[in-house]
Amino acid sequence: MAKTMSQLPYHYGVKIRVFPSTEQKRLIKRNSDASRFIYNQMNGMNNDLFWLKQVKIPITIVLDRIADLTERLKRPSTAISNSHGWLNHPDFDSLMKANAIKNYKTAWKLFHQVHQTGTPKFHKRSYTQTYQTSCLYSAKVTVPTMSNGSVRLNDTHHLQLPKLGRLRFKGFPSKLLSRADDVRVGTTTVSMDTVGHYFVSLQLGSAYPFVAKQRVTKSKIGIDLNLDNFLTDSNGQVIANPRYYRTIKGRLAKAQRKLSRRARRAKKSQRRLSGSKNYQKQRLLVAKLQLKVANQRKNFLHHVSTALIKNHDLVVAEELRSKNMLRNHALAMSISDVGWRTLLNMLAYKAELYGRKFLTINPRNTTQTCSDCGHVLTGKNKLTLADRKWTCPNCGVFHVRDHNAAKNILAKGLELL
C-alpha cells in the first residue's frame, strides 16, 4: 500500500509561476472568494457559539441556537453548502471547501499551542487571491507520482489542476523533473499576488532525500546580526547590509502620495476604487515597487542562508524577537529592511534539508562580554550602539564589537551541545 504524505520521511516545497487563460483566471477568483467565505462562515459560527454559551439564563431560543450551531459544526461542509446553495456550483473545487475548513481548524490548533497571534480572525477581501486544493490518487494507482494524480505534470511546461484544467508554467527545478517517478504531490496552493502574477505552490513528498548529503566540513560558525553591517561571523568575515528598501524609499513615498490623492479624488467623485482606472494604475505601480524590494531581499537572504548551511556543519545565531525590537521607532525601519526573522527561518529549514545543525541562543550579554577572558561590561562601561570597537578593561584585548559578539554566540552554542 502506498504511503501517505505524512508517512513519507522527506518533504519539499516548490513554487512555480503559471499563466492561466481568462476563463482560468475567473475560476481562480471564484474559488478564492469561496474559500475566504467558507473560512469566515466557520469563524462566524464559532464566535456565535462562544458568546451564546456566555448567556447564563436558559432561554429557549438561545438553547435552540446553541444546539443548531453545535450540530452544524459537526459537519461544516454540508451545513455551509446547504445554507448557501451557490457553493454547489460546478465551478467550485470540492477539495477547496475541505481545505478551507481544515485551515480554520489548524488556525485554532496553532492558537492553542502558541497563544501569540490570537484567535482566528475574519479574512478580509484584498487584491490578492489564494485557495488550496489537494492531489488525489485513484485506488488503481499503486505508486503515486507527480504524473498520475489529480494534480499532475503533463510535460515540462504544463500542469493539470482540478477544475482549472491545463496550465502553462515555467521554472520547474530540473532535479525534480528528473525524478518525477518517486515523488508524490500533496496540498497544492493556487495564488495571485497584488501585481497580478499567478503561482502554484506544490507540497512534495518522497521516500528519498531531495538534496544530496553534504560532506562533513568540521566547520562551526557563530553569526552576529546587526544594523551596521548585515552579518559578521566568528571568523571575522563581514557581509554588507544591502538596504534595499532605502534605495527606493523616495520613489515609493512619492508614488504612495500620488495613490492617496487619486483615492481622495475617486471618493469625492463617488466612484468605487475598484472601478477607478487611474487609482488602479497607480496601485499597480506601488505594488510593483514593493514587490521588487521584497524579491531582492528574499534573493539575498536565500544566497546567504544557503552558503552558511552548505559550508558549515554547525551554525549558531541569536534568537532575535523582531516584533519586540520594532517598538524602537528610531530603528524600526532599518530592522524591517534587513529581514532577520526570515533569515533565521531559512537557516532552520535548510539545516534540516541538508543534514546540518542550526542553533539559536539567548543573546543576553553576547555584545558586552569579552570573548577572551569572559569579563562582562556593566554600568557606565556598557557599550552603546555607537561603540563599534573597544578594549577589554580586564585583559586589555582589543575587540571589534560584532566579531567579538559572533565569537561569544558560537561559544554559547557549543555549550548547549
UniProtKB/TrEMBL annotation:
<comment type="similarity">
    <text>In the N-terminal section; belongs to the transposase 2 family.</text>
</comment>
<dbReference type="InterPro" id="IPR010095">
    <property type="entry name" value="Cas12f1-like_TNB"/>
</dbReference>
<feature type="compositionally biased region" description="Basic residues">
    <location>
        <begin position="257"/>
        <end position="271"/>
    </location>
</feature>
<dbReference type="GO" id="GO:0004519">
    <property type="term" value="F:endonuclease activity"/>
</dbReference>
<keyword id="KW-0862">Zinc</keyword>
<keyword id="KW-0479">Metal-binding</keyword>
<keyword id="KW-0378">Hydrolase</keyword>
<feature type="domain" description="Cas12f1-like TNB">
    <location>
        <begin position="340"/>
        <end position="409"/>
    </location>
</feature>
<dbReference type="InterPro" id="IPR001959">
    <property type="entry name" value="Transposase"/>
</dbReference>
<feature type="domain" description="Transposase putative helix-turn-helix">
    <location>
        <begin position="13"/>
        <end position="42"/>
    </location>
</feature>
<keyword id="KW-0255">Endonuclease</keyword>
<dbReference type="Pfam" id="PF07282">
    <property type="entry name" value="Cas12f1-like_TNB"/>
</dbReference>
<keyword id="KW-0233">DNA recombination</keyword>
<feature type="region of interest" description="Disordered">
    <location>
        <begin position="257"/>
        <end position="277"/>
    </location>
</feature>
<dbReference type="Pfam" id="PF01385">
    <property type="entry name" value="OrfB_IS605"/>
</dbReference>
<keyword id="KW-0540">Nuclease</keyword>
<feature type="domain" description="Probable transposase IS891/IS1136/IS1341">
    <location>
        <begin position="214"/>
        <end position="328"/>
    </location>
</feature>
<dbReference type="Pfam" id="PF12323">
    <property type="entry name" value="HTH_OrfB_IS605"/>
</dbReference>
<dbReference type="InterPro" id="IPR051399">
    <property type="entry name" value="RNA-guided_DNA_endo/Transpos"/>
</dbReference>
<comment type="similarity">
    <text>In the C-terminal section; belongs to the transposase 35 family.</text>
</comment>
<keyword id="KW-0815">Transposition</keyword>
<dbReference type="InterPro" id="IPR021027">
    <property type="entry name" value="Transposase_put_HTH"/>
</dbReference>
<protein>
    <submittedName>
        <fullName>RNA-guided endonuclease InsQ/TnpB family protein</fullName>
    </submittedName>
</protein>
<keyword id="KW-0238">DNA-binding</keyword>
